[in-house]
Each structure stands twice: as C-alpha cells, then as structure tokens.
C-alpha cells in the first residue's frame, strides 16, 4: 500500500533518541512519557482524560489491528500528547471499525511514532522512572529539545479536561452529582446503568453548589496530574465529607485521602494496564483491575486519619482502596468502570448504590459500627 513516510523522533529527558516512522499528525509535542501494558483498549487509552499531557507507549507490539470506532471513546477525543508503538496496523479488521489508527491520530492532531524499540523505552521508564519526553516530526536539534525538556511543565491539567458547564443525564431517581476532574464516560455509563440521575459539574464547583442539587450521592471522578495541584478540589471534598455519601475513583480516591489528612506520593513508573491484581481485604477476593495512575496514597500516612485500608495491590503492595471509619465515604485507586479492562470491580458501583439507598433510608451503618 502506498504510504507517505515521514520520520519522527522521540527524545527522552535522559538524552536517548529514538527514530521511527510518523503515523500521526506532524509537529512537536512535549509530555511525560508513560507506558501502558494493555493488549487491547488503545482507543479508550487515547481518549481517557487522565492521560492529558502524557505521551503513551504501548508495550503490546501491534496496535490498531481492530481499527477505531465511535463507541470505544472515553471522552470527546484523544487526550494524549503522543502515541508510541512498535508496529501499527494499516489494514484494520473489525465489523465496527470506521477508520485506521493513523487516520484517527492525524484527524485529531495527535503525533504518533512507530517502529521504535518499545521494550527498551519501557525498560528505561521502569529503571529511571517516568520521564519528560518530546515527540517531533521537525528538524529541531536534540540539544534544543533537551533544553526545553529541562523546563517545568504546566500543572493545570484538570482545567483543560473538565466540563466547562454543568450538564445532566436523567436516568432514574437516585440523584448523583459527579465532579468531573477529567471523567471517563464509563463512569457516567456505570451510574446510568444503575438508574441514576447524573449531574456532571465542573472541577471547580464549590461544595455549596454541589449540595444545592440535594444529591443522594457524590461521585469523585478520575483525572490527570498530581492531586496536590488541585487544592480547591481537596477543600471541596473536605466540606462534602459527612454531608453526603461519596465514592471516589483514582484521582477522586487521592483527593479523599488528601482531604482526610493522608499524603500522596509519585510512583516511580505508575500502573497503567488492564491486568493489575487487587485484593479486597473484606472478602479476600482478588479482582483483575484496570489501572491508570502515577500517584498513590502513602500507606504510613493513613495512621492517625479516619481512613481504613480496604484494597491492596498484589504486585507491589500499594494502597488500592480506602473506606472511612465513620462517614459514608469510600474509594479505589483503580477503574471499576473498566473501559478498557475487565468488569471484576463493577460491584463497587453496586456498593455505592447500596450506600446511597441506605443513607437515604436512614439505615446506613458505618465501618466502625459494623465492626
Ligand atoms: N486516572 C486517574 O485518575 C489518575 C490520577 C492521577 N492523575 C495519577 O496519575 O495518579
């Protein structure tokens, strides 16, 4: 097949330069480089707003073989700063496919590089930690790119991905306010599937405004960046705790921890993939989970707070879930809405519904009381 070949370069902060084939848009794009180990789900990865500002490397060697479609999106369009693959498929094959991965990236102005050693890139990230990187189809000298990589990146990611205005998806009689820090559509879909009337509000909505909807529950969404860069959200969560049942996912989980006096820290290279084993300490069951995070709650910082560890990562022992001792608040670091990934943790949305219904009916029992 005739294919216009353009060279692209990926330059890492540590000075490594990878030359490959451009298969996306032309230009120059800076971001934090991370890797995702999912064998499928590349379109959900591209459109997950938590990747805003990041260049994503896929460890699976062939990407794009089932094309792209209008259903597998987690937001309006791709949020990544760049996409790095070993090989991309030029001839997608799937009954739902409407475009190729390269066509999709080009249409959305996203840079892509193929034909590079993604194993080596991943090993570098694993040993040196998450790094800054630049993807370019231009002739900018490496020294100039490295000089720009030594400058700090903006830290206001949430403001770029949150909804600009409040919107409502009617679906039932449980009124849930979802705080959108860069929410995946899967979260709203999971609530709508459970007869919720979902009111999605911008990240900087105050606690008073949230409560003015008289919600039966509040959902704190996933989102990009360091949770400590959103002090306004920590403040809001602090004020909401105890007023209404709360369920937090990923960034939402981290905000609950920070609002409760615990600490978050950066993982060396993060968890991004669809097969992370997590143990539910209450049932002893292990779920295979979908994950995408670079920060984590520091376990020792839970001491002296009212939060109890509820879920633990079986690969590295990190904190994966928390429950409040006295208030209707719980959260997980991973993605029960999956998309991509297994539905093992879907039950957490049912738990949230139970909490909402019990609280509303005046029969909710706290963790401490149940013990
Ligand atoms: N998916 C998320 O919500 C990620 C949370 C946060 N941005 C992190 O990287 O840890």
Automatic annotation (TrEMBL):
Q: What class of enzyme is it?
A: ligase
Claim: ATP-binding is one of the keywords in the record:
yes
Task: List each copy of the Carbamoyl-phosphate synthase small subunit N-terminal domain by range.
Answer: 6-136
Active-site residues are 250, 335, 337
Tell me what reaction this enzyme catalyses: L-glutamine + H2O = L-glutamate + NH4(+); hydrogencarbonate + L-glutamine + 2 ATP + H2O = carbamoyl phosphate + L-glutamate + 2 ADP + phosphate + 2 H(+)
Question: Is Ligase there in the keyword field?
Answer: yes
Q: Which domain of life does the protein's organism represent? A: Bacteria
Give the enzyme's EC designation. Answer: 6.3.5.5
Recorded hits in InterPro entries, A to Z, give:
Anth_synth/Amidotransfase, CarbamoylP_synth_ssu, CarbamoylP_synth_ssu_N, CarbP_synth_ssu_N_sf, Class_I_gatase-like, CPSase_GATase1, GATASE
Q: Which UniProt keywords apply?
A: Amino-acid biosynthesis, Arginine biosynthesis, ATP-binding, Glutamine amidotransferase, Ligase, Nucleotide-binding, Pyrimidine biosynthesis
* An annotated GO BP: 'de novo' UMP biosynthetic process
Q: In which pathway does it act?
A: Pyrimidine metabolism; UMP biosynthesis via de novo pathway; (S)-dihydroorotate from bicarbonate: step 1/3; Amino-acid biosynthesis; L-arginine biosynthesis; carbamoyl phosphate from bicarbonate: step 1/1
Report the CDD domains cross-referenced here. Answer: GATase1_CPSase
Q: Which residues bind L-glutamine?
A: 50, 223, 225, 251, 254, 292, 294-295
Q: How does it assemble?
A: Composed of two chains; the small (or glutamine) chain promotes the hydrolysis of glutamine to ammonia, which is used by the large (or ammonia) chain to synthesize carbamoyl phosphate. Tetramer of heterodimers (alpha,beta)4.
Give the protein's function.
Small subunit of the glutamine-dependent carbamoyl phosphate synthetase (CPSase). CPSase catalyzes the formation of carbamoyl phosphate from the ammonia moiety of glutamine, carbonate, and phosphate donated by ATP, constituting the first step of 2 biosynthetic pathways, one leading to arginine and/or urea and the other to pyrimidine nucleotides. The small subunit (glutamine amidotransferase) binds and cleaves glutamine to supply the large subunit with the substrate ammonia.
UniProt lists the family membership as follows: Belongs to the CarA family.
Q: Can you say what this protein is called?
A: Carbamoyl phosphate synthase small chain
The protein's organism comes out as: Alicyclobacillus ferrooxydans
Starting at the broadest rank, the lineage of the source organism is: Bacteria, Bacillati, Bacillota, Bacilli, Bacillales
